[in-house]
Amino acid sequence: MNEKNFKESIIEAIDIIGDDEIHKKFVEEFGELEETYRQIVFKEILRGLLYKHSPAPPQELSGQESEDTVVPTHTKKSLEEFYDEIQPKNHSETVITFAYYFYKYGENRIFNNKDIEDCYSKVLIAKPTNIADLVNLHRRKGRIMLAKGKKDGRMAFAITRKGIEYVENDLKENSR
Prior knowledge:
Elements: H1 3-18, H2 20-30, H3 35-52, H4 79-86, H5 91-105, H6 113-122, H7 131-140, E1 144-151, E2 154-159, H8 161-174
Antiparallel strand pairs: 1-2
Helix pairs in contact: 1-3, 4-5, 5-7, 5-8
């Protein structure tokens, strides 16, 4: 999702929450909400609006943060820090590490081969000769899946539950 759509979604969510007519109808129907519940309602409205502009699945939002929740930017790890933490041993592990980074810390959970290539540049390591082959290797193993639509005019991918578990259970454990 681009920054313009993101800002528009936030403004639309604020307008919905702040709309006196909608608020009055809601209070008549359900009663006044405590502040904690207002925050949850705002998150749910915003999640729905953001989902309209993004092909990635909406993440579940509740009053408590889950480990799948995208981390706010002020506590987010840089790609370099995350790469150094995982310490992938080869290009195959590096590609799935980058896919996991998009899932955990990215603005959008989907990526394309160019995004993976850009990650190699950011962490200052040599790129493999064919990133598409490495992505397809993980697709065959069920760690990466084809996402709906395209991203920046290219095939889009997303990490799967199996890929997440592989990074969290195998790669992270082996890096310690």
